[in-house]
Amino acid sequence: MSDTRRRVKVYTLNEDRQWDDRGTGHVSSTYVERLEGISLLVRAESDGSLLLESKISPNTAYQKQQDTLIVWSEAENYDLALSFQEKAGCDEIWEKICQVQGKDPSLEITQDPMDESEEERTEELPETSHLVELPPCELARLEEIADLVTSVLSSPIRREKLALALMSEGYIKRLLQLFRTCEDLDNREGLHHLYEIVRGVLFLNKAALFEVMFSDDCIMDVVGCLEYDPALVQPKRHREFLTKTAKFKEVIPITDSELRQKIHQTYRVQYIQDIILPTPSVFEENFLSTLTSFIFFNKVEIVSMLQEDERFLTEVFAQLTDEATEDSKRRELVNFFKEFCAFSQTLQPQNRDAFFKTLANLGILPALEIVMGMDDLQVRAAATDIFSYLVEFSPSMVREFVMQEPQQADDDVLLINVVIKQMICDSDPELGGAVQLMGLLRTLIDPENMLAPTNKTEKTEFLGFFYKYCMHVLTAPLLANTAEERKDMPEGSAKINPVCPDNFQTAQLLALILELLTFCVEHHTYHIKNYIMNKDLLRRVLVLMNSKHTFLALCALRFMRRIIGLKDEYYNRYIIKGNLFEPVINALLDNGTRYNLLNSAIIELFEFIKVEDIKSLIAHIVDNFYKALESIEYVQTFKGLKGRYEQEKDRQSQRLSSHLNKLNCADRYRRDARSLEDDEEMWFNEDEDEEDGDPLVEKGRSEEDFPESYGKYMEAKKVKESEDKENLPKRTPSGSFKFTFSHSAGAANGTNGANSKAATSASATSPNGSSAKSAALPTTPLVKTGLVGLVDYPDDEEEEDEEEEQSPRKRPRLGS
């Protein structure tokens, strides 16, 4: 069989009876050896991966819906759908399915009860007829019809047979004629039977039946049948609501009659599902899956048809932004867009992208900027919903628009500032709108969704823009409610600061602002740090520790906790300099012995400082507040802080004493005269041994020549010393020594006593007669300064030995 590829979207029905998008690809029908039959294969258009592999089973009922849909069930709770981009592709795959099953492609459902095995038919359907035999459609037989419809619901095969019978004989329309007769006669018993019949037919879950029942000439009669629930004393008045109360408002006249009919139908079917039909039980969940699909794909079709009508959308935007438009008309336009965006959620991802890009090109964001600033609460609420759809779809698109706005003198006209102002001015006592807007702001300023690969400067540019033009608007209520400085208050004043908000709604608003600022501390390290320092923001926030609303005090504490959690010494110095632990410790002491969340949160803050060993904060807390905290013994936190503090002091003392020991180790340089003479003799003896084996020693020289040569060398050395004094260590203002020369192996001999001659003679002169190592030798003036021993003697001795072994030529030239 030829391999036919068509572009499709694969859907599966989830547990909530909603269609999940599994991806876009190309469908083909081909023989699969592993499945031993012709199968439907869908390969993803992005990477060629297999999205679907489904064998066309002879017993599976495939349904063709709305020209571009094929729906079937793989298992009892696993429904699949293929949504084709083109009708021709759907027709071609449908013909392949029908060819495999041996069915007529003109049918909209492939399963024929004749294909069932004899065993299944005997077990499930004792009747010999291949179709369910329906009783005559008469008033007297309504009870029999109702019993039949109810009885088949438990058997999938009998449901299929009943559905075929109802479609083949035009039975539905005749039943609805009986409904009008019963209503005219006020035949309540017949009306109750018709309720059971129509409800059962809906539970047959067949799209072909829905097409008939939800057509313009039948749907209101279907709704009428469902009004007469036998469990109700009086029937509901659903038809009255749909025809009189629910008004279809055309913000712009819709000229397409098919689109208008589709909108009416979708609204009414949605009403049937959500309002009229009872919530399905666990055993009935699958009965209405096709009804859900019917509504879903209707919405897709409505959005697509509206989106394709450019004149319609252009006119809507023109009226929305026109200052002359009446408020009532603008309210209807905004509500239309809200519904339009809600319907768009049913679109496939690539179509949804195109939808929102179309709205953006038409100017949805400038329009929202206008309507969100209006006084009408309904308009603002609807505009907020539209804004949330846009932010959820593409935060970058919104950020790009905001940064392109002209920078006017009044920052309040900027879209983000309009959003912040609406959040601040929310009149709802529970601040429901403010909470929603705060979530949108968080999404916009979240660096995680600022995609660096596509635009590396987006994060830097937008955050710079936000902190320059918007942050002062966000923090204005916080700064206004913490305006007075608490340190000016006299001691013993009341706990509750007059500037702390006692109003619950204001406290809630400040808590939301603090939550957003805490988010900024975690994610905007550079910008928020500068803002906190410049505005002394933490001090203002900690004023709220005095609020009578504990949740607000906890928000202020959480803000400080996030700052300390960064373990940034820049922040730590700011906290220490401002003595900003004072309001926190006052709150802890004022809380007394109450074991509550505030108590635990404050103790956790100090526990974190102790565990992380933040030394600067530990020292500040112990030095300034330990006397007030030492009585708290039900936790070991503060004693632990004191312990850390003492340990650090001990370590510093040890370092200091070690430093002093090094300063005092000049004794290592001082030796008595006898020791120095012994060293000198040992050095000369060692030198004599080396001379004997040196092939380059000048033959005319004897041991007696060395003292004379040495005396001449010392006279030259004294002259050289005066030149090299600038290389001696100089005492710095801190009292330590600063060295400007490097140490050599010659300094490691330890022979730099007060009258040492051997030490100075340990340096060899260069061929031109200058001292090669004299700059590195600690001479007599060096000893007088009490020099710290800066060399490791054993190692340096080894280095000298190596140097002497590798350079035997140097020493014989000492007297040259």
From TrEMBL:
GO terms for cellular component: nucleoplasm; protein phosphatase 4 complex. It comes from Chanos chanos. The gene is ppp4r3b. Regulatory subunit of serine/threonine-protein phosphatase 4. Residues 714-729 have a biased composition (Basic and acidic residues). Residues 113-126, 680-695, 793-805 have a biased composition (Acidic residues). GO terms for molecular function: protein phosphatase activator activity. Residues 144-647 form the Serine/threonine-protein phosphatase 4 regulatory subunit 3-like central domain. Belongs to the SMEK family. Residues 107-128, 680-816 are annotated as: Disordered. One of its GO terms (biological process) is DNA damage response. It holds the Pfam family PP4R3. Residues 742-772 have a biased composition (Low complexity). Residues 5-101 form the PP4R3 EVH1-like domain. This is Serine/threonine-protein phosphatase 4 regulatory subunit 3. Transmembrane segments: none annotated.
